Amino acid sequence: MSVHLRPEEIEARSFAMIEAEVGAHPWSAVEWPVVRRVIHTSADFEYARSMVFSSTAIAAGVAALARGRGIVTDTTMALAGIAKPRLARFGIQGSCFVADPEVAQKASSLGITRSILAMRKGAADPGNGIFVIGNAPTALFELIRLIREEHMRPDLIVGLPVGFVGAAESKAALVELEREFPDLPFITNRGRKGGSNVAAAVVNALLILAEENS
Amino acid sequence: MSVHLRPEEIEARSFAMIEAEVGAHPWSAVEWPVVRRVIHTSADFEYARSMVFSSTAIAAGVAALARGRGIVTDTTMALAGIAKPRLARFGIQGSCFVADPEVAQKASSLGITRSILAMRKGAADPGNGIFVIGNAPTALFELIRLIREEHMRPDLIVGLPVGFVGAAESKAALVELEREFPDLPFITNRGRKGGSNVAAAVVNALLILAEENS
């Protein structure tokens, strides 16, 4: 009975079930733990086909976490889903500015989303390098604009907004960006699915890789 | 371009797309806003078929929220996903005890999950009535035990744990419980899928129904 299993045992058993159901897959030895954790979090095997990693994503993301670079999320949910003991181990500061009073006030006066201004505020602090989007396509479009127009060079983008208006388009635009910026580190997926839980799962998987490397 | 739509416009457009894609469905006028918000949050149309509402769920849940009954979640993520201004409007206290030091210490000494003890702690406070599970099957199994063995009578259970070990089984056990307790208010789904984001979406949909009623 599952009630009597320890959390590590439940996770190991879950991973074995995922491996068995997925079977042969195209993911590398460092991409697979990320994809597997996303499936573990969502119970959705669509991610076994829809995830996208830029060529530099895992190495750059793991290195940035190991260096203690700050994480900025677009939702408090994504921030809540990232394992705090793992952040503490690397001295990583996690931030979400979407409920920040200054952000709310500026968004209202400029007539743009709080998600856009939350990214802008996060990007303005040079201690931040990892940008995690689990909800708002506008946040991901803003990161793309900051890279193109303001020479922002993030250590990693985890771009997994969800939804029916703009989510798939924002992720397709991120994937396209690799042609212009071949070294841009990003992890995303194709289609409408995504979410704060899935975005947090990607970060947690990278934190575990960083721990295994250290 | 979605960047220039206001959040209300994005939501309205998303809901229209969901309605068009779902087509005819079996949900009542008060169940459908809940199912629709779950699909909106997950971009997963499987929920249009897999959600389960007990006969008393919506009326009891909305009434409990309107009375300001406390909410207990099994994850900080689910708590983070519930709209704080809506909770404040009804004077609702939201709590998650999974990281509570007393819970962690007892879990370790008793050799059971923190999720079980977090539910037990939440249930011990008579101000709490709404129990929201987005992750841990053990938390949902514990609620079922409290109802059967300790005469707990929750105002509402939102039981949407996710995963490969125990999640589907815990939800099936909850559905079975309606035979013994025909008035038990619960909202759940069939299968492995679920999650803190989906559980929070259910609560948010009910809070909106409570606002519309008030």
Fill in the keyword field for this structure.
homodimer; 214 residues; alpha/beta; Rossmann fold; 6 strands; globular; cobalamin biosynthesis (chains A, B)
Task: Give an overview of the whole structure.
The structure is a homodimer of 214-residue chains. By secondary structure, chain A is an alpha/beta fold. Chain A has one domain (52-213): Cobalamin biosynthesis CobH/CbiC, precorrin-8X methylmutase (Rossmann fold, 3-Layer(aba) Sandwich), CATH 3.40.50.10230. Chain A has helices spanning 7-22, 32-42, 47-50, 57-66, 76-81, 84-90, 101-110, 114-123, 137-150, 167-180, 196-213, and strands at residues 51-53, 70-73, 94-96, 128-133, 156-159, 186-189. Chain A has a 6-stranded mixed sheet, sandwiched between helices. In chain A, strand 4 (128-133), helix 9 and strand 5 (156-159) form a beta-alpha-beta unit. In chain A, helix 2 packs antiparallel against helix 11, helix 8 crosses helix 9 and helix 9 (137-150) runs parallel beside helix 10. The longest helix of chain A has 18 residues, at 196-213. Chain A is globular. The mean pLDDT of chain A is 96. Chains A and B meet through helix 1, helix 2, helix 5, helix 9 and helix 11 of A and helix 1, helix 2, helix 5, helix 9 and helix 11 of B.
